[in-house]
Amino acid sequence: MDRSKLVAIATGTISLILAIAYLILVQFLDFRGEMQPAPQDLSLYRPIPSVLAATPSLLEGGDTNSEAMAQ
Known about the structure:
mainly alpha; about 65% helix; elongated
């Protein structure tokens, strides 16, 4: 065989491998089920850290223990 036929066979083989891999990937993604839409309001899903919720003075830059220790 001459070189052009070998290149054509190699290109065709690579093309078939990519096509089969693509079909397998699409089948796998389709097998996962129906996709759920993204939530519209993300603020409902953002948890408040318990440290900041328990000590709101940290957000203002104050220290609750410094006043108690000064007295």
